[in-house]
Amino acid sequence: MRSRYRGCMLGVAVGDALGASVEGWTGERIGERFGRVTEMRRTERGLPAGRYTDDFEMTWEVADSIARTEIIVPEDIARGFLEWYSSDPISLGRTTIASMELLKQGAHWNEAGQRVHEEVGKMSAGNGSLMRTAPVALAARSDPDQLRDASMDVSRITHAHPLCIDACVVYDSFLADLLIMDRKAAWARLLELTEWAYPAINEALKDLLDSDGALDSSGYVISTLKVACWSLMRTDGLRSAIEHAVNLGGDTDTAAAVTGGLAGAYYGEEAIPDTWLQALDVNVHGVDDIRALADRLHELSEKDGSLPQ
Ligand SMILES: [Mg+2]
To answer: Model pTM greater than 0.85?
Structure first.
């Protein structure tokens, strides 16, 4: 289980970093230029190989807050986001920026995302809360009610569109199942959950595994959820899952980070290529820091079954 916790956190980090080198490229352009992206690369904008971006940095903030407070406190997570935001981070999404600006002006954690959603409507259904929700599943995996409520709250800090909130609950529920069961059984449970509780997401997922995997990988939350689920279910390992998500093009870093969280939880840290792990040490929080934080979440989740609310 400890390996799966580490795999999940490290999976988000390596997915983000591998995808960051070709963020926004089309699949065709990646193919023409590199054939296929399989190793960490320096980006055209000059970021070093292995550098992760906002996706993992926000994931870190969520995990770090939970480890520090030993419960899931959205207000504390929002404070962590603000501190991170003031460090001048790279490649943020529009909805995140708009919500962070409101938080900076003093908006309550439960209000900023909602105000942005009301202002921009449909366009606020981006993948910016899905990309950072995995630690919620790790912390609350043994308590489905807490997992649902916390996934919703942590999304709402920046992304209050109902689809974003629901996608986070669905993803975290799937991730929690992948920690303890075969992926086919977890997928069946996912479809069952979405069928009665989240019909819009069920509609998107129910025939997904029949597709050939050539999916549109945009910043739309449902698009990213589809790419991550297909990549996990229709490939034969962590490496091929993350590579599939990257080489589709589009929002490559986020799609691969979201995929990496699932694949790492399922296959464990041993499945992550050494060259990918080594490259992570270019970041402020390197491999050992990420392992230690994952271990803290693991210890917390073992404490009398679940976290106090
Ligand atoms: Mg990013």
So the answer is: yes
CATH code for the domain of 156:
1.10.4080.10
Cα of 16 to ligand 1 centre, how many Å?
Answer: 6
CA dist., res. 215 & res. 249, Å (int):
10
3-state helix, strand, coil in the chain (%, to 5): 70, 0, 30
Spacing, Cα 255 to ligand 1 middle (Å): 9
Identify the CA nearest to 41 among candidates 287, 290, 276, 285.
276
- Ligand 1 center to residue 15 CA distance, Å? 10
Return the amino acid letter for 242.
I
Boundaries of domain holding 235: 2-302
Question: How far, rounded to the nearest angstrom, does the alpha carbon of residue 32 sit from its chain's CA centroid?
Answer: 28
Q: Total domain count for the chain?
A: 1
How many angstroms does the Cα of residue 89 sit away from the middle of ligand 1?
A: 10
Residue 309 lies in a domain: no
**308 CA distance to ligand 1 middle (Å):** 32
Q: Quote the ligand 1 centre to 20 CA distance (angstroms).
A: 6
Three-state SS sequence of 32-46: HHHCCCCCCCCCCCC
pLDDT averaged per 10 residues in sequence order, the chain, 309 residues: 98 98 96 96 92 97 97 96 93 89 95 93 89 98 96 97 97 98 98 95 97 95 98 98 98 98 98 98 97 97 68
Residue 160 vs residues 119, 151, 182, 255: alpha-carbon distances, Å: 11, 11, 32, 20
In a domain, 200, yes or no: yes
Task: Report how far ligand 1's centroid is from the alpha carbon of 61 (Å).
Answer: 14
The reply to whether 185 falls in a domain is yes
Any domain includes 259: yes
- How far is C-alpha 211 from the geometric centre of its chain's CA atoms? 23
Select from 16, 21, 52, 18 the least CA-distant residue to 38.
18
